[in-house]
Amino acid sequence: MMNNSSIIWRPQGEYLASRVADFAKRQDIDAQDWRALIKRSTEDIEWFWNSFLTYAQMQWSMPYHTLFDQSKGLPWVNWFLGGNTNISYNCLDWHIQLNESADQTFQNLEQPRPFRNFSRRKVGPEHLSSIWENESGQSRQLTYGELNLLAGKVAALLKQLGVNSGDAVGIYMPMVPEVLAMLFGCFKLGAVAVPVFSGFGPEALAKRMQDAQAKVIFTADGGKRRGKLLELKKDVDQMRDTVRSLKHVVVLKYCDNKIDWSHEFDIWFDQAIEKISPVATQYDLSAEHPCLYLYTSGTTGKPKGTVHTHGGAMAQIVKELGLVFDVQSTDRFFWLTDIGWMMGPWEMIGVLYWGGTLVMYDGALDYPEPDRLWQFVAKHRVSTLGISPTAIRILKAESDHLISKHDLSSLKYLGSVGEPWDYESYMWFFNRIGHGRLPILNISGGTELIGCLLTPLPTMPLPACSLGSKGLAMDVDVYDEGGTSLINTIGHLVLKQPAPSLTRGFLGDRQRYLDTYFSRYQNIWYHGDWAMRNDDNYWFLYGRSDDTIKISGKRIGPGEIESVLMEHPVIKEAAAIGVPDEIKGEILVCFVVLHRDVTESVELAQEIIKHVATKCGAIVRPKWVYFVAALPKTRSGKIVRGAIRKKHLGESIVDISSIENPDALQSIPKLKA
Predict the structure, then answer these.
(1) Is 276 helix (H, G, I), strand (E, B) or coil?
(2) Contact by Cβ (8 Å): 586, 607
(3) 237 phi and psi angles, rounded to 5 deg
(4) Are residues 475 and 529 in the same domain?
(5) What is the full DSSP assignment across 422-483?
(6) Domain boundary pick from 509, 542, 575
(7) In this model, does residue 101 exceed pLDDT 50?
(8) SS3 of 539, please?
(9) Domain limit, last residue, from 526, 542, 558
(10) Which pLDDT does position 300 carry in this prediction?
(11) Statement to judge: residues 210 and 113 lie in one domain
């Protein structure tokens, strides 16, 4: 089970000499005493953030005079008061200014002494910022100098199009190198980037652009997924007239497909930037100046626009990429993501800040061959691979026999995010991909904080399926319904002290923000996840609390049921939901995808029902087990249980825009009478 505290990985060698170990030593903490570092950081967040930002050499055109102000309560904390900075300067300009005197505009609070390769170093304009490839094998590279120039031209184009500091700019793009320039071009100008998942349709796109009041949107003529054309420009055309704030559509020629053209709105990206001169980075942005509006995924209701700032987002992301994933200038970091998911901007900001090389892939992980991902990792000598548990479950079934064809020896870290693990899939990832030698850095947080509440550290021994412990300076706890702290019992994951990257509310919806995160406990951030910590201070997640199933008064998370289902050898994927029942309150219904060579039968369904009852107890015995061809999932690999439940109950699904494969809903049967 997921709360097994048996250690399967222990740090040694380079892991014990990682950046977090160096940081701990400089704070007079034993480099291997991870508990002491986490304890001090969560009890004294002022000490941590002041010390870390000095250590990380974050650059300020005007240093902050006060770390944070929480006089208005936890929902409305301001950070880095008086401080001015810019993400683009820190991630691009700083790296290519080889002359140290060029730093005089920006200041560090205190320069730490050089120590091996841990202090942040300038990598120079010729260092690779990114390596890109798509599923058909096309590839490109950009140096830091090339990316900075291109981002400067993007900023100049936006300025020419009437975009000012604080204006919103949509990014509705495939995962191509130009996305980096578009994102950092917005940062340079002080515009607010609004990345949107390229699989969304026109209605979902319009809602986000309307909410953000975007003036310009970047898109492409098309995209490709599993060899099929995605008509991105067509989606923009369909929603354009409904967004009154939108003045221009900038189009990248990527697929050379036929598109409609409006001379009033449309501009070719390559032609527009060819002769334009780049503009300089706007250095004097307040640390509280917004940099990103990120929209949370969901299947119902108006999308929630979270608001992130240059100072706050950068501080949190830099901490996680620097101290958790230990990104060095020699590293090649790859997370299977889209620009519309928070992991896209997260990895782009964090990797470039530390001078690493970002590896980008545009396409499906198992197309055109089931081992496409392993081929890609081997070819580009990836050092950190991040992925979701659902993606691993797919790959485990489809490509296990092909892994030995590929040299994965470049890997140093395995990353995971998005949902709870089942033990079998976790151990497959650990043993088959990591050969039992690499840590799985299983992190968890959310769009609302563009960062993590729970993270392991490279210096920490790890049990299977664990998330390690509290993130550094993240004062999290597990509460029962009444607000009492729990140990060895599943409860609600909460945050008790401020963090710099917490959203500054929901865009244009103050009350909904308060109702979502602060209505359950007074002045405590309620995150909506089920979690547990054990006596050894290792933490585990059990899914979203709003997915909780309550059978005869007993609460159980679907993740726990799904983990048990995945232990059955015939099951490839699984989802569990609760449906209303007059006697028990709710009954358990399960949907499973079988391995390719398994035949459906009534007898097999009964065998699976018995398996769950044996493992979890008769009280949570499933009423029904349905065999389905696929489960609806988001692009990040999360199973959309809310949509499954509504389809099963015959209820209308307001918004399926976050679902990558909406056709999967058609195989979800209606509730039996």
Answers:
(1) coil
(2) no
(3) -60, -40
(4) yes
(5) PHHHHHHIIIIITTTTS-EEE-EEEGGGTEEEEE--TTS-EETT---EEPTT--EEEE-TTS
(6) 542
(7) no
(8) strand
(9) 542
(10) 43
(11) no
The number of residues making up the chain comes to 673
> Does some domain include residue 295?
no
Lowest mean pLDDT among 107-111, 300-304, 630-634: 107-111
- The pLDDT of residue 553: 61
Give the whole-angstrom CA distance, residue 40 versus residue 49: 11
User: What is the band of 397 on the pLDDT scale with cuts at 50, 70, 90?
Assistant: confident
- Please answer whether residues 329 and 117 qualify as being in contact, where contact means their C-beta atoms are separated by less than 8 angstroms: yes
Looking at residues 527-539, what average pLDDT do you find?
Answer: 93
Q: In which residue are the tokens 């079934």 written?
A: 397
User: What mean pLDDT do residues 632-660 have?
Assistant: 82
Indicate which CATH number applies to the domain containing 659: 3.30.300.30
CB 333 within 8 A of CB 357: yes
CATH number, domain of 354, equals 3.40.50.12780
Residue 189: name the closest of 272, 284, 277, 282 by CA.
282
Q: Predicted confidence band at 467 (pLDDT cuts at 50, 70, 90)?
A: very high
- Tell whether 364 and 496 lie within a shared domain: yes
Helices (H), 161-201: 177-189
Domain, as residue range, for 187: 144-274
Is residue 656 within 8 A of residue 299, CB to CB? The reply is: yes
- Residues 157, 161, 163, CA angle at the centre, nearest 5°? 95
Mean pLDDT of 5-31: 94
Using the predicted structure, report yes or no on whether residue 659 has a pLDDT greater than 90: no
- 673, pLDDT greater than 90: no
Decide: 487 and 533 in contact? Cβ < 8 Å: yes
Whether residues 560 and 480 share a domain: the answer is no
- Checking if the pLDDT of 185 tops 90, the result is yes
291 within domain boundaries: no
Q: Is 609 in the same domain as 640?
A: yes
Closest alpha carbon to 475 in 491, 497, 454:
497
Instruction: Confirm whether 538 is domain-assigned.
Output: yes
Q: How many domains does the chain have?
A: 3
CA distance 596 to 610: 22
Phi then psi for residue 91, to 5 deg, are -90, -25
Q: What is the rounded distance in angstroms from the CA atom of residue 46 to the CA atom of residue 313?
A: 17
**Is 334:28 a contact under the CB 8 Å cutoff?**
no
Tokens at 644, concatenated = 């499954």
209 is a domain residue? yes
The pTM (predicted TM-score) of the whole model is 0.86
Residue type, 602: V
Calpha distance 340→342 (Å, rounded): 7
**Long-range CB contact pairs, 408-411, < 8 A, 24+:** 408/374, 408/377, 408/378, 408/433, 410/332, 410/377, 410/378, 410/381, 410/382, 410/383, 411/377, 411/382, 411/383, 411/384, 411/385, 411/438
